[in-house]
Each structure stands twice: as C-alpha cells, then as structure tokens.
Amino acid sequence: MFPELTIRLKFPWLCPNVNPLFLYFAFCLQVHGRLFYHLSTYNLIWVMVAVVLCRAQGLVVTQDEKERLNTPASLRCSLQTDQEVLIVTWQKVKATSPENMVTFSKNHGVVVQPTYKDRVNITHPGLRNTTLTFWNTTLEDEGCYMCLFNIFGSGKISGEACLTLYVQPTVSLHYKFFEDHLNLTCSATARPAPVISWKVAGSGIENSTESVSHPNGTTSVTSILQVKDPESYVGREVICEVLHLGTVTDVRETVSKEP
Predict the structure, then answer these.
(1) Which of 115, 131, 183, 186 has the CB geometry, 3.0–4.6 Å to 124, for a possible disulfide?
(2) What is the DSSP letter of 46?
(3) With bands split at pLDDT 50, 70 and 90, how would you rate the model's confidence at 76?
(4) HSE of 200, CA atoms in CB hemisphere, 13 A
(5) Which tens digit of pLDDT belongs to each residue from 16-33?
C-alpha cells in the first residue's frame, strides 16, 4: 500500500535518521490496518510523515578509491535528489570529530580551510556533483571523508568515501652458497605489506620470514629458504611469488655455482 515505507523498513540505510520506533509503529498500523480501521486518517498522516522524512534524506552515491602514494587522487559524491542545495562541504573523518576541509556555494565559490591550502580543492564544483582532489597524496591523506549537502529546509544529507594509498612492490631475489646449505632470499617492499611465497621442489627446506615497517609507510618483507642439500639445486629454477593488492608478481632465478 505504501511502497516508500516498505522500502525504508527493508532498507533502513536509505534514510538512517528516521527513528526506528516510529517506523515500527507505522509498520504496525500498516499491517494491522483492519484492527485500526477507525484510525485510518491518522494512519495515513503518520505514513505520509514517514515518507517525507525518508525522502528528505535523499541518496548520496560515493565510491572508495585506491591511488598510488605521492600522486593526485580524487573522491566523488553525487546527490540523487531534486531538492535545493545551498552549500557543499567536505570533511575528513577523525576519531574525535570531523574536520572541515573545503566548501562550495554559489555565493562564495570554493573556500579551502587554511590547513588544507595548496593540498586539496574541489575541482568539479557543483551543488549535486562534487569532486575533492588531492594534488599530491601523503600518508596523512589516507582515510575516510564525508561530503555534506546542506538542503534548503531539510538539513544536511551526507555520504562517505574512503581513500586508500598504496606503493607498488619492488622485489629482489638472490641466493648464496654455504658449506652445508644454500640460502634463497626474496625481499619485497610495498604498501600495504606484500605476501611472499615460493615455488620450489624438494625436501630439507626451512623457511623464515621477517617484516620491517618504514617511516614512509611501506613495509619490507624478507623470506629466506635454507636448503640442506645445496648441490641438488644447481641448475634449477626457483620462483618467488609476491602477492600485493590481488596481483601476483613472479621473480625467477636459476641457481648456478658460477661466479
């Protein structure tokens, strides 16, 4: 009977600011309409209020982004409503409270807060579609951001988009013979931390792995295979596999005793 109310009850994220108790009461009126037939007028009024409140929340479309560290990056928000927007604000989500970064309005244009001057800007200024651009990302730019649309007569509607920064892995593979064993060493440095695995055959192999975090946000992972029978690996190809953000990089080396 009331599709907007049904959608809100099934999908509460569409209008999160509506009191759940109020929706439950409206739902009961809808389900038990026959028992409350004499209150049908009130039923209709309550449900209409629920629909108006739900629609006032609108729908903000956002998308999380992954970008390379020390490169430009952009986050986008799109408001799916015909209501009049007065001002758009971007905030950084912090543990204590959100921090204002930049705003856009028809009267004042783009206004960047001093803390973010020369670091960010709204590159596609608009009251329904907005783009926050970081000129050159740093470690402190990683995190989540809110776009707030100040709606005339309805308050604010917000969306959230998160930025993840990464560094592509650099990989090295080498080996060294000792009197009674052979060491195969594979190292990879990336952000987030890479995962190392091996493609080698044989027995008598021990594996040890260590990780080191660096101030620039990257992590170095080193995996060492100790082979007890080094002579059996002469002429063999060993493969180190590095997994990073769903992509596998292979590094190959043929073991030789020649200098």
Answers:
(1) 131
(2) H
(3) very high
(4) 32
(5) 444 443 443 343 334 344
Residue 12 has pLDDT above 80, yes or no: no
Q: Where are the domains of the chain?
A: 59-166, 178-255
Q: How confident is the model at residue 10 (pLDDT cuts 50, 70, 90)?
A: very low
The CATH code that applies to domain 178-255 is 2.60.40.10
Report which of residues 155 and 102 the model is more confident about: 102
First to last CA, the chain: 83
Nearest-10 crossing angle of helices 20-31, 40-57: 140
pTM of the model: 0.71
Distance (Å) of CA 228 to CA 135, 224, 225, 236: 52, 13, 10, 15
Angstrom distance (rounded) from CA 144 to CA 248: 28
Q: Is-same-fold flag (59-166; 178-255)?
A: yes
CA distance 25 to 217: 51
151 bridge partner residues:
85, 155
| Helix, strand, coil percentages for the chain (3-state, nearest 5) | 20, 45, 30
